[in-house]
Amino acid sequence: MKKIPRFLVGLSLACLLIILPACGDNTPSRFEGAQQESIDAGSRNTAVSKDAVKGAGFNQFFPVSEGGYERVFTQEKDGFVEAVLKESGENVALLTVFDTVSNPSAKDDFADSQGEINGYPLAQKGSQATALLVADRYQVSVRSSNDSFTVNDREVWLSKFDLNGLANLD
Amino acid sequence: MSKSIYDLVDNLPKRNVTTMVLNALDFVAPGQWQNPTNFEQMIRDISQETDEKWIQKIGDRAVWLYNDKNQGYQKALWLYQTVDSADYALGAAALANKVGEKIGFLSFLNKLTPSNQKAQALDLSLKLVVEVVAFCQINGLPGDSIGDFVKALKEYEGEALMRMAALVCIDGLIPFGADFILSVKSTLDNLTPKELSQNSAFSKVSKLIPGGNPAGQLQFIGSSFNAVQGWMTGFVGDRNLTQGKVMNNLQNFVEFSNDQLDYVAAFLDMSTNYFEHTGTQSIATRLIRRAMAEV
Q1: Which end is more exposed in chain B, N or C (fewer Cβ atoms within 10 Å of the end residue's Cβ)?
Q2: Which tens digits make up the pLDDT trace of B264-281?
């Protein structure tokens, strides 16, 4: 059998080395920047400030169940509480309070606020959520989980939070 | 450094034995589980946003939250990964080339050893306890009372409901039949702390199970089981679930006869990692929901 010329072997190997890494989907994720920054920042207390209010402190300011509406608490973490709002058993909205001390950039949307409820600035957060900034710190949001729950419904439910109580939380 | 949350979700198998088993159990929780395996798409589906600016903000925030070790998400994932049978790798390798065709059971019967009743009962109880502990790591303790907490458990939907459906069917009904709650309860009642500490599945997750020592942990396992017993009874009753129905649905892709039930249980233990698979999806779902409110 004829020997394969050495340069051909080398050439094929070189080609393999170039081609192989191109196989598979190597497109970097659009969230890679956040991952890298987060790793550089460390692994503890980097996403949630040590000064964030304990979530349980927010519960008392949430609207209560009424009429055909039921409020069910679903998450309670440092500086964050989430409740589901159900109408006749169907999820219609998410009610949340967030202590922006852990992510102050959330407050940027209120800088050019066009509206208010009870004196607190109001902002649309994307197409599905409406939020208030209370005491320049707590972001109270209502997010529609159902098309039937309109912007107007969101504002009505925002006004049902005990906003002044939350503003005086120490 | 551990993997990013988007890598974990994006690398979930689209189709393997686990997803086939879960799909076969769709009749238990119809349409609840779509096997999300793309983190960005999950953000779009959950948030219903189309504006790229918001997709980016939500995803970035979720990445940071997952990486903060104090927030419990990594512990929860570890629990979900660890409680799935250690034999998984063996099973997965044996079945890797079987996906897509009907799996002939006899071909690898010799690789299976059915667990005894005690080990099986403990397996179910440990998975339940892991679910309770992981739930608290992910969601905290929502509300101000036990009543609020039980209500939060009832909110299980999507992949979390699928996980519980699989637990009831695969680790309850198949090995024990309709009386599985009673069988497991009586096994737990007769179990000694020493037997518990000798169990290999328990020793792997024990450091995250409350109770202080094996005696206290056994008590915690017992009370967790009691707490969700009513829910499980309702789950089975409302859907009229029987061992036969579950087996019929599984027989669509695995060939076995009814006298091989013990082996079916061992087979499913070995070849699936449904806790890790759906657990990863649950963590991502809750992270995204939290991140939506924190941007």
Answers
A1: N
A2: 777 888 888 999 999 999
